[in-house]
Amino acid sequence: MALLCIAMITSCKKDPNPQLPTKLLLRVATADNIQMDKFMYNEKGQVIRSYYYRGYTGDTAYQDYTYLNNRLHKITHHNAEHTMYFYAGSNLVKTEVSDATNGVTSYLDHIYRNGKLDETHTYYKENGQWDLTQENTYDYDAHGNVHKINVYHGPDLQTTVEFTYHNDHLDPLPTIFKTPLVEKEIHYNGEGGIEWTTANTYEYDTKGYPVKRETITRNADNNVLSRHTFFYSYKD
User: Fold this and answer.
1) What is the pTM of this model?
2) Of 16, 1, 4, 8, nearest to 138 (Cα)?
3) What percent of the chain has pLDDT over 90?
4) C-alpha 173 chain-centroid distance
5) Domains along the chain with CATH numbers
């Protein structure tokens, strides 16, 4: 799934506070460049291409972005897949993933209540039929940010992801919606037990933009699974 798609799941309110950042993020990378994201923009400040490198296969992948009526319309992936975005008014209501051989292979419906994203339903095509494979429900904190995502496969709760934020600093990643920087992310299994926790600490420049992030992931026994330091670079 595209980086932009992943980031948007925690950012579903329309009028974020504080104000949207004006700096354009160019690069987020570890010091050794084992993990890296890079972004290119058009004259409107909209991201038109991103590169992401995870160091697993030695390859750098990319995806291209196109817009319609100043909203994200399509992401074309390096492997010839593409993702289309459909809107009703100001709400994103459907996302489709396609490839050149099979056409639409999956889609995601977005359901809103009281102006907020309440549920998403994911469908995959099996033997010519569309099967509902996953349902997510969303809970919000007092600031209107997604606090909890519950993931169901059929009637069974599989995973719950809980977020807390640095509410005075927006994430500079170029996503469909804007969300504050994530402070902590806790993953629970279907029985409510903690599987792992990821905690982020940040350093900022004089304008409040993050320039450094320390990320530590721990298992249920509080043992460190991974530790990374990321550095942010911006367009002047």
Assistant:
1) 0.85
2) 8
3) 73
4) 9
5) 3-234 (2.40.160.190)
